[in-house]
Amino acid sequence: MNVLVIGSGGREHALAARCAAEVGPASVLAAPGNPGIARVARLIDVDPLSAEAVLALVDRERVDLTIVGPELPLSVGLVDRFHAAGRAIVGPTRAAAGLETSKAFAKAFMHRHGVPTARFLTCHTHREALDMAKSAILGFPLVIKADGLAAGKGVVIASEMESAERAIREAMVEQRFGSAGARVVLEECLTGPEVSFFALCDGIRALTLGTAQDHKRIFDNDEGPNTGGMGAFAPSRLVTAGLHDRIVREIVCPVLAGMSAEGHPFSGFLYVGLMLTPDGPKVIEFNVRLGDPEAQVILSLVDEPLLPLLMAAAEGRLRAAPVRLAAETRVGVVLASRGYPERSDVGRVILGLEAAARLSNVSVFHAGTSLREGHIVTAGGRVLTVVGGARTYDEAIRRAYEGVDLVSFDGMQYRRDIGRKALLAGERAAQPS
Length: 433
Ligand code: AMP
Ligand code: GLY
Prior knowledge:
Layout: E1 3-7, H1 10-23, E2 28-32, E3 42-43, H2 51-60, E4 65-68, H3 71-75, H4 78-85, E5 89-90, H5 98-101, H6 103-113, E6 120-123, H7 126-134, E7 142-146, E8 155-158, H8 161-172, E9 184-188, E10 194-202, E11 206-214, E12 217-219, E13 223-226, E14 231-234, H9 241-261, E15 267-277, E16 280-287, H10 294-298, H11 306-314, E17 329-336, H12 353-358, E18 362-366, E19 369-372, E20 375-378, E21 382-390, H13 393-406, H14 420-423
Parallel strand pairs: 1-2, 1-4, 2-3, 4-5
Antiparallel strand pairs: 6-9, 7-8, 7-9, 10-11, 10-15, 11-14, 12-13, 14-17, 15-16, 17-21, 18-21, 19-20
Helix pairs in contact: 6-9, 7-8
This protein binds adenosine monophosphate (AMP) and glycine.
Glycine (GLY) binds near residues 228, 229, 291 and 292.
């Protein structure tokens, strides 16, 4: 079986490594990939946004299954083109990807189908947004979200009218997020811990792939600006068996049934960002792909062959029995460049990669790296994810940081508290969620 992984980050490295473990590196291709992925797959320099080029590659290399990592190729309809050509692919169509690409669509959809989420108002003009913010319908703090894809930077939590006005102006008048800010969604501010829930879907059925908790802020103790994610651990201890069933019943099932009823059955990875509020789990956002760095911590907990499951999802024939998840934990620490998240210092030589990868129960996934004169150098904001695995969180944290201690590059920054949240209620072995 030949597999193609689309993308070039840490999530795609984790996907490619998993595929290579199942079918051998000679049967795995990645486009465009990165130097870490090159260890487990053959890299092909094809633009993931060009459906023609990707389909030509699939035919030329006799690819049986394509797995899409990032949202952008999904948002421009790569999956639709594959379906038209009769080729197997894991991911939603362009319309179904609307759950991530338009917050206005996702919120209205949840409203139509009774999926629990924050109360909201969608505003189409600057005037309307200001009036609604002032109206006190939602109160303060007020959450202001650009409608479209904004690389995780489109959300502001305004504590009073002045900062709300500024956020609305930046999105709708100054067009800080381009056309993504043409509409904004205003939301009531929810409180509670955040967890990420992952499901693999085939249009009708969904199988849980696990849970995780991300660390979005740049600094320890969740301080500083938001990033794409500075680390994650899996599973989340907060998602008990009872809560898991409630999330499936109140959120995942109605989403699949609703998308199907509206003519856009959802297939691929569904990432539900949840807040566990005093009134129960509520959806903060959907993503229509795996998370990064969440993929790096959840995939190796899938305790059965993944590729047959992915093929079944692509072909609309997922089984009913749950996916077997290992009763272990993973902790992933992101190593970022100086200046991230505002900008990133690149071209710094990375040392210690081999030594870290030799540690047992430690994996190093590449994100922003490139090859220069035989050296692996930094090439982006988030450079690597170092993952430790063990039965307990405590031990997984220790292993992850043992790996981190062996890696270095000029300006390297990372959080020292990844996984600590999992320990707060007292250490115990993880239960599979
Ligand atoms: P999003 O891009 O929609 O995931 O939002 C980014 C972050 O903003 C989330 O991870 C939350 O921490 C926060 N956030 C989003 N919506 C809300 C809300 N309604 N109430 C409180 N915090 C929110
Ligand atoms: N880590 C958050 C995301 O992938 O969207």
